[in-house]
From TrEMBL:
Pfam families per UniProt: AMP-binding, AMP-binding_C
Protein family per UniProt: Belongs to the ATP-dependent AMP-binding enzyme family.
InterPro entries according to UniProt: AMP-bd_C, AMP-bd_C_sf, AMP-dep_synth/lig_dom, ANL_N_sf
Protein name as annotated: Class I adenylate-forming enzyme family protein
Domain AMP-binding enzyme C-terminal intervals: 367-441
This protein's UniProt keywords: Ligase
Span of domain AMP-dependent synthetase/ligase: 9-101, 116-315
Record carries keyword Ligase: yes
Amino acid sequence: MPVALQVVRHASEHPRRIALRAPGGDLSYAGLARRTEAAAAALRSRGIGRGTLTALSLADPAELLVAVLAADLAGATPLVCDHTWERERRERIMATVPAHVRVEAPLPSDPGPVPVDSGASPQDRAWACFSSGSTGRPRAVVRTRASWTGSFPHLSALTGIGPGDVVLVPGPLTSSLYGFAAVHALATGATAVVPGRWPARPAAHLGDVTAVHVVPHRLPAVLDALRESGGARGRLRTAVVGGAALGAGVRDLAVRAGVDVVAYYGATELSFVAADTDGHGLRPFPEVEIQVRADPGQELGEVWARSPWLAEGYLTAGAGPLRIDGDGWATVGDVAEPYRAGEVLRLRGRGGGAIQTGGATVVPEDVEEVLRRAPGVDDVVVVGSPHPELGSVVTAILETDGPRRPSRATLEEVARGGLDAAQRPRRWYAVRSLPRTPAGKPARGLLAARLADGDPDIRRLT
């Protein structure tokens, strides 16, 4: 069933229940249903319906969710875009995406009686978003309705989130993590608190919040806000944490604050893969099979998953980390220790060099493509360096030397001009010559190991 129809059902049963708390004010389920139906009719009047891709770029989180639900109700596929993209970059990205219409302003609230599409199928393309770190070579991930909404009951069972909950979603809905959290809350009939970004004062948003979705490095701030707010203590029951590994000791802090933690591992392309509900380790998410495939003689292998929750793939021909074999198993290149069914999945990082930083997945090749444009850079390798809060930070190692070596200020200017915030290197190094494989490619793994070992030939740029 489309999430929009579930919202309509909640509106008929509990019309006055608050569906959304957003910067512009509260919106009841009855109000959200009316707005959604009107907006869906407006889309249909523009010829948008089954099989069409609707690109949505709206700053206000409530207006964005109305547009998402409207596209869903009209039978179209909503593609959630980042409204902060600069115009030139937006045009470059959108030129590669087969969108039928672009919505960059709130949809009309009373367009007239235009019928909406009610012939929804579980195999409809019902959600699309850009994977973290998209550039001029974007990776728009698309999934079916079944892969999108079918996991909702399992997440509800693991987290206890239901109609009586108030769920804080303190991040941009362009992120698959936060977008999923908001839509799941609405599908269950809960109240979704959607500030649109991380709030300056988290305590001001806690109030009667009973559950929160966060990336790991934000959970300590939530716990600090609980102590600050005083009265909110005891209301927040559950923290759902994804996007990176949960730091040692953070779960203990949450338990002492009376908050249960449900941590999970997944990816935009794979959705949920494994969950840790008790601090004893990651185990397969319901209906998920896991394999770790290692080459002979290797201690670590790639994580492969097979489940109903896998994305359909990418909307464009741009390369991405998702690979699917002939038996329906998929991977994004993450690596783990050997695994057998019934055991705990022990992740060891991103394969292929992909970097998990603060809940975002950054593909090094995207960053390298931009940095190679900087004057004086002969070549560059981007790796992840450990960080106590973010998991990893993007680190650039430049092949450059002598008077042509660019300044850090120049490099940062180039990064700002072509990269999203999560993609921009936090640490910069230079080396005369990058180590290379026999095929002539930079030896990323060897270089990362040399950096970790403090190789004096790799010089820090300040």
